[in-house]
Amino acid sequence: MTQRISVVENILNANDQLAEQNRLLLNRNGVFSLNFMASPGAGKTSLVERTIIGLQNQFRLAVVDGDIATSLDADRAAAAGATAIQINTGGECHLDAVMLHNALGKLHLDVLDLLIVENVGNLVCPASFQLGTHKSILIASVPEGDDKPYKYPGMYRGVEALVINKIDLLPYVTFDMDYFQKGVEMLNPGVVTFPLSCRTGEGLDHWLAWVKEQVTYAKF
Amino acid sequence: MHELPVTENILEIALRHADKANARHVKTIYLVIGQLASIVDDSVQFYWDIVAKDTIAEGAILNFKRLPATLQCQVCSLRFSPDQDDFSCPDCNSSNIKVVSGDEFYLEAIDIE
What we know:
Number of helices of chain B: 2
Shape of chain A: globular
Helix content of chain A: 25-40%
Strand order of the largest sheet of chain A: 4-3-5-2-6-7-8
Strand order of the largest sheet of chain B: 2-1-6
Radius of gyration of chain B: 18 Å
Low-confidence stretches of chain B: none
Largest sheet of chain A: 7 strands, parallel
Shape of chain B: elongated
Oligomer: heterodimer
Number of strands of chain A: 8
Largest sheet of chain B: 3 strands, mixed
Number of strands of chain B: 6
Radius of gyration of chain A: 18 Å
Mean pLDDT of chain B: 91
Distance between the termini of chain A: 52 Å
Mean pLDDT of chain A: 95
Low-confidence stretches of chain A: none
């Protein structure tokens, strides 16, 4: 005889619980953490480098880099002056709380102020998997096109700050900033936005000031 | 791509509850997926046939219930379910919108024998 059993259990529950443990671990050590998410090529690693260089005199930084393969990104972060751990997901399209938990175990969290997690380049999946980081940052870039908020709403909805990278290319590509920002406003009203160029350095001071404020006034 | 670990989670939850109830077979699994959760039914079904093999849930039917998203206009307070692409308020056309629900992704119930 068939019998129905009520379950009502969140399918990502195991991940979310471990994300909460990551958050508590970071809090206990007083480490403020950012999760950088973007499509491949938007400039996540460039922004990591710029952030390290801009803030390493004020804060003790580490970077966790997620990629399907290679340690190219961690090498760049290390060359810029931060402790860097590479996670190779071996095909998985996003970082999850387990991967970050393992990486946190390799870091001396007690001597850190700021941890940047660079997620796998992907505008879909990383939004669904909590890591336990304090703030999520989406890095959009001008050459991707102005329609991305409309096409990847999940990613644009779930972030606390938005960087628009490569603004030095605005004169050369078709990118309607008003149309882009209307899409952002629809999904994430009032989200703090930083138009900048990692290449020329334009706009970076606002971004660095914001990160500095987040780390300085973080409540654990 | 991430439907594989997601499907493994579904199996783990279903087997745990089936085991608690001393089930011999899991016949049906009822999943609830919000309109805004980026989960593809066909892909979960594809992986399901692989991950559930040789378990008491092998051959179980996956039942997907899609819930529409609910949005609330922050200007005129209207609550509505959006079309696929247009999230702006159908009444006052404002794009200042808050998502009330639509991210659901849970296992609601299982049928066992």
